[in-house]
Amino acid sequence: MATDIIMPQLGESIAEGTVVKWLIPLGGAIEKDQSLLEVETEKVDLEVPSPATGVLNEILVKAGETVAVGTLLARIDNTASPEVVHRVGGVVVRPVEPAAPGEEHHSPAVKQLAKEHGVDLTHVKGTGAGGRVSKKDVLGFVSQNAPAGKASALAMERSMGEEVLPFTQMRKTIAERMVKSRQTSAHVSTFFEADYSSVVAFRAGRHLTYLPFVVRAVTKALRDVPIVNSSWGDQGIVVRKDLHIGIATALEDGLLVPVVRHADRKGLTELGKEIGDLAERARSKKLSPDEVQGGTFTITNHGGFGSLFSTPIIHQPQIAILGVGAIQKRAVIINEAIAIRPMGYLSLTFDHRVIDGATADQFMAKVKEYLEQSHWEQIL
Amino acid sequence: MDLADVTHEIKRGDLLHMYYYLRLTRTLEDRITALYRQGRIVGGCYTSHGMEAIAVGYASALEHDDVIAPFHRDMGAFLIRGITPGEVLAQYLGKRTGPTKGKDGNVHMGDLKRGIIGFVSHLADNLPVATGAALAFKMRGESRIVVAGTGDGGTSRGDFHEAMNFAAVRKLPVVLFCTNNQYAYSTPLRYQMAIADVVERAKAYGMPGEIVDGNDVAAVYVAAKHAIAKARSGGGPTFLEFKTMRMHGHSEHDPAKYVPRELLEEWKKRDPILAAERLLIELGYGDETYFHEVGERAKKEVEAGLEFAEQSPLPDGPEVLEGVFATELNDCHHANHSRSAA
Amino acid sequence: MTTATQQATGEVTYLEAISQALDEEMTRDERVFIMGEDVGAYGGAFRITEGFLDKYGEWRILDTPLAESGFVGAAIGAAMMGMRPVVEMQFADFISCAFDQITEVAAKNHYRWGAAVPMVIRAPFGGGVHGGPFHSECPEGWFFHSPGLKLVAPSTPYDAKGLLKAAIRDPNPVIYFEHKFLYRRIKATLPQDDYIVPIGKADVKRSGNDISVITYGAMVHLALEAAEMLSKEGIDLEVVDLRTLVPLDKEALFSSVHKTSKAIVLHEDNKTGGIGAEIAALLAEECFDSLDGPILRIAAPDTPVPFSTPLEEYFLPKTADIVAAARTLAAY
């Protein structure tokens, strides 16, 4: 059996009324006396209670339409089980009251999404029950306003086990710089292998890490091939006279590159002390701004955790960076015989705008030579 | 029992072994009672005081690989199967070194390696389980048997009847017994059943039944031995009713004022340890000196057990979450650790 | 045992799948045996063990006395002594006679003294067969709450066979709820070789984005029917078949609800205190930030299962209920 819902006469002189909105969706269950729709006339705005219990299975007049009093608006099917009401959770049939402005209640999912995407919910149009903002509404808003090329679909795929770590300043800076550097320079890498025997022999019994030796070899090689100590300027390539070597230092949450100024003027001991001091102050966040500026060449000791080769990113506005790989005993051929030597790879990334492979290799050959054959006691 | 029958049926060493266990059971349970009264044992405290001959008697008639499904008046059986006084006291004190690691208390101990099926508080639940164990042995053609029992109260429960029936229908290798100590908590026998002897129930299930003097360890042993042999040889189940008296309350907190004093006085004279001593003297197996020495040995064993239990750690709170589910099957084919004659 | 149906179409019914699982496990492992009322000479009230007595003999297919407590207790004892009994409850409704043995002995044994009870109790449950109050019950709620038991409820022939095998091979007591309404009404072609469906893993029977319908047993099929109808209206249901009730596959549930943000829990058991209540609470606790609407439960009203047809129809959840609820939740 069906019950007709007609446009009521809300006042003697009223001849027509407007359907403002249906409070129950098509096919939804409704109970007798429960509010079914909102109607507006010249005089009054009110909710119409349902005359029957059943399922709203036909809507003939849509929201926004104005019709004459007595017009058939909808039909309720009473034969469909009203039991749906008790069987299903109570909220199914209780319509959501539209909220007063400023008092909107947002579901947890909506709040979470808004936070993630930085959406101001007051800007989002709600199409859910009672005019509430639904998850679909937020996602729709995001995809419409997303920057070109950015997939908001990713955000919709929320799976278990996701945690959002807010950006730190350092992380943002590193991210910016790394990407910018790659976009600026033409990065090419070349790899050499050095025999650290003389270094190892000299280190024995002394408090020196490998880095001071590498720094010394580098500064000497830079003197031999000065164009590696330059940067790309507006007018041309700017070759620097001073050698300020940056030492990439890993921190708990990022990295810094403190600079050893005039590294060519310092002996091994002094280099060792200064590198150690800079690293310590880098980690305890006690460096001054000018200690991380002005470098002309950078060394990154990536071998600490066992890495053999690397393709480091150039520290702008420099044009090259040297990666020092882990030192391992290897079998090598010396004088037609197999010997065991402490070997390590040196990885140079250079800016191909400024120098070509031949120059880079020339420089590296010198670094290798100096590492392998220096009289260390003279520059202690 | 006739002395001649005793010497025919029971080896001297076995009888002395049983006497030791009567003393050990009594000493251990007296210690438990004392600890309870001192407030050191909490929860329920049920003993078999005055009824020790039943458990000691039937447990002594078992083979290595046999299995028991006892109830709470069977402390002697636990000991003979190899649960040490130390483990028992650790169990009562809720320590991690007890057989249930603190998960359950008092006599609710079980260990498949020692052939003991741990029982629950719902009396007679152990009986269908026992028939199932016997079913497994029969299915696999093993010559192992099961002995299981409950009190007079337990025989009112459906599970008692379902177990008796199933055991008889399938002719299972099980010996079912009732320790009729005349009271189920405060309920005397006449409110528990309309029959005078529980053994009459056996006939109803088509099972042979026998009344045995529960305070005569030799009689218990012999009856159990024969019933076990019958089960082992495929002759099916037997029901044994052990007549005895509950000398303490239902539990140690129960003064049992509902038991007439005269009844207790009468049964005191029939104390199983006194009875065993009389028997040993008559047979020339022992004298007062020997009894005293056995008593000292039992005391020492119990005190050593108490020390072990006291030194043992309590479990940690989070251990409550362990062991809900099994990750592997049981090793149940070898019950060992039965202790040989002293 | 290949049935006539299988030979004709290559498909087996839900009931035949159960029978196959039993047959294959009995052959594979001599410790497995079946016990229950009328399982032997009669072949089982539902004919699941037809022919088994001849094949396996009376000491592996035991016709028990009418004593559920007694024979479940016996199964426990046999299981502890190294056998792998599969107990058949003629109807799940009779499991209450064995409630004590199941919840006090079987469930607690391993926890208390380390003895595993590797047994399975098969319980034909559910209504829609004019069975009345004692042949249509869904008793899983009572055991859901008993730590130490595992409960499974397959909805398809594939799951029925695989889960029964897994249950038989599990060292814990498992209650296997087979839905009697599904016995001969659903068919499928099954893999030839041995396979199990792991206990503790739910299965998304239909993937969707709008609403998660979490359910088990015969209701799975109603949910799929509702999903078909609603897809035409642009409402996309995801149907999550629990398959295992204890332990619940929480990861699958949370993952589904995190995706859809809306949930309907559906079961044939009475509403109050049914498993749905636990699932709704879990979702509210663990998925709160993902919810974009209330968690709904569709279940039978809180009454015994009635006999008369109009009463039983009113009682059982219907596809229309799921459709109506989903429409309203989708519009929320």
Please sum up the structure shown.
The complex is a heterotrimer of chains A (380), B (342) and C (332). Chain A is of the alpha+beta class and 380 residues long.
Please outline the helices and strands.
The complex is a heterotrimer of chains A (380), B (342) and C (332).
Chain A: E1 2-6, E2 16-22, E3 29-30, E4 35-40, E5 45-49, E6 54-59, E7 66-68, E8 72-77, H1 84-87, H2 108-117, H3 135-145, H4 153-156, H5 169-184, E9 187-195, H6 197-203, H7 211-224, E10 230-232, E11 237-239, E12 245-251, E13 254-256, E14 259-260, H8 268-283, E15 297-300, E16 320-334, E17 337-351, H9 357-373
Chain B: H1 3-9, H2 12-37, H3 52-59, E1 67-69, H4 75-80, H5 85-92, H6 126-140, E2 146-151, H7 158-169, E3 174-180, E4 183-184, E5 187-188, H8 189-192, H9 200-204, E6 209-213, H10 217-232, E7 238-243, H11 261-268, H12 272-283, H13 288-311
Helix pairs in contact in B: 2-3, 2-12, 2-13, 3-10, 5-13, 6-7
Chain C: H1 4-9, E1 12-13, H2 14-28, E2 32-36, H3 52-56, E3 61-63, H4 68-80, E4 84-88, H5 99-113, E5 120-125, H6 140-144, E6 150-152, H7 157-169, E7 174-179, E8 187-188, E9 203-206, E10 211-215, H8 219-231, E11 237-241, E12 244-246, H9 250-260, E13 263-270, H10 275-286, E14 296-300, H11 309-315, H12 319-331
Parallel strand pairs in C: 2-3, 2-4, 4-5, 5-7, 6-7, 10-11, 10-13, 13-14
Antiparallel strand pairs in C: 1-8, 6-12, 9-11
Helix pairs in contact in C: 2-7, 4-5, 8-12
